[in-house]
Amino acid sequence: MNALFVIDVQNGIVEEGDFTEELNKIEQIIEGFKERDEPVIFFQHLDEEKESPLFEESRGAELHESLRHHAEYIVEKRTPSGFFETDLESILEENDIEHVVITGFNTEFCCMFTAIAAFDRGYEVTFVEDATGTLNNGDTYEMKNLDIRDFIGTVLHWSETIEVLDYDEYLDL
């Protein structure tokens, strides 16, 4: 069985940029999973630092209203990996999950780390590149014109372990 991971679609991230396209794609993927009665697992990153946009006791840490009504499961995490010190593996085992599909935020952190951790645990992984987003850009990493989603997608694709698709390719499956 398949499961959809919707990673860190939280106010503290989504409200800091224009992620309309990403949110629409994520919602379409969610609806497909729900039609097939496959689990949709949301992740909520919680930080202890009050300055963080995802401070655990702030509005920024809450799941964004555009998608939160779709959350069947919510996995709280404190690191980029959705597996580290969470109950994710038990949820996956209870649902006989073999394949996970990755969407959400931030592409180069929580999405990538969770995808790699899933592969390391024996899951088949599909990373929907343009159904992920990030607040960062090339200036953040001092790499002018860096397309973070494309870079991460290329690295994961070249690993030959994680299937990387764009949204249109995902729809063709």
From TrEMBL:
GO molecular function, one term: hydrolase activity
UniProt cross-references to Pfam families, sorted A to Z: Isochorismatase
Superkingdom field: Bacteria
Domain Isochorismatase-like, chain residue ranges per copy: 3-156
Keyword Transport: no
Family matches, as InterPro entries: Isochorismatase-like_dom, Isochorismatase-like_hydrls, Isochorismatase-like_sf
Family indicated by similarity: Belongs to the isochorismatase family.
Protein name: Nicotinamidase/pyrazinamidase
Organism: Oceanobacillus picturae
